[in-house]
């Protein structure tokens, strides 16, 4: 067995990227450090780490410990550290803040194979955006809409047009992704629930918000979902999305904050 395989199968060894993220975030709780380390190793073992462009785990006990991007954990906007636009709560259970990721999708991603993943541990009723940006003049949009109702709640991935499915709760793991210039999917808890073969448009040239839509630079459709693991990624196929959901599910369960 190669030394590389030995490394990835020995989770008592700290992954260097996990260690950089934890140390730069000033997260020194040994139990949390171990679980984050396992998360990084699981991503790398399944060849998913290099497909993640930015991510936030919300495992620290305050806002400063939760702001750094796991891929480049440095305290500057160009490294996609989070800026709080509306402060609600942020701790090791997750964040209900409205946040600017400083991530501008067309600068980093191709429209034909990009996506986002959001984990929500608690949610509210109404029409709310969990992850998104929108430019009204050009109709450029990329958003994940999660509304909850026993009668008319919907889940939707929108670029220009959108296809919706009924939705009665706002908790769990969600992925919206493009897999071609015209096709997009939505997954919830490892299951594909939307397959839209006519979803076209362009990525908005403004930064993505968490827990709200960045609509022409202002907060729109704000929410107070409790966001947990949130990622922006590129190039995932269906099997890899399912694998990612399993990894996140195990991570959230091990942290003791899984509610679905």
Overview of the molecule:
By secondary structure, this protein is α+β, with helices and mostly antiparallel strands. It has helices at 3-9, 16-24, 30-45, 63-66, 105-108, 238-255; strands at 52-56, 83-86, 90-91, 94-95, 98-100, 114-122, 126-135, 140-148, 154-158, 162-166, 172-178, 184-188, 191-196, 209-210, 213-215, 218-220, 226-234. The protein has a six-stranded antiparallel sheet with strand order 1-17-6-11-12-13, covered by helices on one side. Strands 10-9-8-7-15-16 form a six-stranded mixed sheet, with no helix packed on it. The protein has a three-stranded antiparallel sheet with strand order 2-5-14, with no helix packed on it. Helix 2 packs antiparallel against helix 3. Mean pLDDT is 90; it is low at 1-10.
Task: Provide keyphrases for this structure.
alpha+beta, Jelly Rolls, 6-stranded mixed sheet, 6 helices
Set down the secondary structure blueprint.
Elements: H1 3-9, H2 16-24, H3 30-45, E1 52-56, H4 63-66, E2 83-86, E3 90-91, E4 94-95, E5 98-100, H5 105-108, E6 114-122, E7 126-135, E8 140-148, E9 154-158, E10 162-166, E11 172-178, E12 184-188, E13 191-196, E14 209-210, E15 213-215, E16 218-220, E17 226-234, H6 238-255
Parallel strand pairs: 7-15
Antiparallel strand pairs: 1-17, 2-5, 3-4, 5-14, 6-11, 6-17, 7-8, 8-9, 9-10, 11-12, 12-13, 15-16
Helix pairs in contact: 2-3, 3-6
């Amino acid at each position: 067995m190669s030394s590389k395989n030995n490394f990835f199968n020995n989770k008592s060894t700290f992954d260097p990227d996990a260690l950089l993220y934890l140390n730069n975030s000033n997260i020194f709780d040994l139990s949390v450090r171990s679980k984050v380390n396992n998360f990084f190793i699981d991503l790398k073992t399944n060849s998913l780490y290099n497909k993640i462009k930015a991510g936030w785990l919300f495992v620290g006990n305050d806002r400063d410990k939760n702001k750094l991007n796991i891929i480049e954990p440095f305290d500057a906007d160009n490294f996609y550290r989070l800026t709080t636009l509306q402060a609600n709560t942020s701790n090791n259970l997750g964040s209900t803040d409205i946040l600017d990721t400083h991530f501008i999708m067309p600068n980093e991603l191709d429209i034909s194979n990009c996506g986002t993943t959001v984990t929500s541990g608690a949610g509210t009723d109404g029409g709310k955006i969990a992850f998104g940006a929108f430019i009204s003049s050009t109709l450029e949009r990329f958003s994940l809409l999660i509304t909850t109702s026993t009668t008319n709640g919907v889940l939707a991935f929108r670029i220009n047009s959108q296809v919706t499915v009924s939705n009665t709760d706002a908790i769990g793991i969600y992925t919206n992704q493009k897999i071609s210039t015209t096709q997009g999917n939505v997954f919830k808890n490892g299951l594909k629930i939307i397959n839209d073969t006519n979803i076209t448009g362009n990525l908005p040239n403004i930064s993505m918000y968490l827990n709200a839509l960045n609509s022409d630079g202002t907060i729109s459709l704000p929410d107070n979902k409790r966001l947990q693991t949130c990622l922006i990624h590129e190039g995932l196929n269906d099997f890899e999305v399912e694998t990612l959901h399993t990894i996140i599910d195990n991570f959230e369960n091990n942290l003791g904050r899984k509610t679905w």
